[in-house]
Specification:
- The chain is of the alpha/beta class.
- The protein has two domains: 51 residues, Orthogonal Bundle (Helicase, Ruva Protein, domain 3), CATH 1.10.8; 133 residues, Dna Topoisomerase Vi A Subunit, Chain: A, domain 2, CATH 3.40.1360.
- Helices cover 41% and strands 13% of the residues.
- It is built from eight helices and seven strands; from the N terminus they run H-H-H-E-E-H-E-H-E-H-E-H-E-H-E.
- The strands form two sheets. The protein has a five-stranded mixed sheet with strand order 4-3-5-6-7.
- Strand 1 and strand 2 form a beta hairpin.
- Helix 1 packs across helix 2 and helix 5 crosses helix 8.
- It is globular, with a radius of gyration of 19 Å.
- The model has no long low-confidence stretch (mean pLDDT 90).
Length: 198
């Protein structure tokens, strides 16, 4: 195999949920495409690399020119509810379902001894300040129903032990080991509506 093609396949294979076989198909499809799709992909990736960054308040990826993302800027969302999620894809799922209209806090991962992810690796530095500044009264944990999700949830509750807030988590409907990205809107709506206090 041509070393340049092999290098490109290896880079695609490193992406989440893309294995070697899928990476080969993607690369071959791009290289054999006659419509200029590869140039448009390069332009889009370059633009994203130069102009997309995490919101300094919540961690949602947004345009670099904005001071805050659209969720933090929206005054209608200042309703005292803060939903903690693992990553941006969880925000998209919740927004698509329309079950939540508060503010988000993207953790950027979950605590994991196996993967070596510690509290320092998560977006937790400004969480206590946000609770105070934004007058948060309820923190909703919309984390995967996994050991890592529960460990992260318990760590955050213990970290915020002096905060005067109510804690809740998504109710039944989210299966053990479930990931929000794979849950349909109806199930997610039931789980969100039936969240329970911790």
């Amino acid at each position: 195999m041509n070393p340049k093609i092999e290098k490109l396949i290896k880079q695609f294979a490193k992406l989440p949920r893309v294995g070697n076989r899928a990476a080969r198909r993607i690369v071959l499809g791009l290289l054999q495409d006659k419509t200029g799709r590869i140039g448009k992909l390069v332009d889009a990736l370059t633009d994203a690399n130069e102009n997309i960054c995490p919101c300094p308040v919540c961690g949602v990826l947004t345009d670099r020119v904005r001071e805050k993302c659209e969720y933090c800027s929206d005054t209608a969302r200042a309703n005292g509810m803060l939903c903690l999620v693992r990553d941006l894809s969880d925000v998209w799922v919740l927004e698509k379902s329309g079950v939540f209209n508060g503010r988000y806090h993207v953790l950027g991962g979950l605590l994991s001894g196996v993967a070596g992810i510690t509290p320092d690796d998560l977006n937790l530095g400004n969480l206590a300040t946000r609770i105070s500044d934004e007058k948060i009264t309820e923190i909703i944990f919309a984390l995967p129903n996994t050991v890592e999700g529960k460990t992260t949830q318990q760590y955050i509750i213990s970290m915020l032990n002096n905060a005067n807030v109510n804690y809740s988590e998504l109710a039944s409907g989210v299966p053990l080991g479930g990931d929000l990205d794979y849950i349909d809107d109806g199930t997610l709506s039931l789980a969100f509506g039936g969240r329970r206090a911790l």
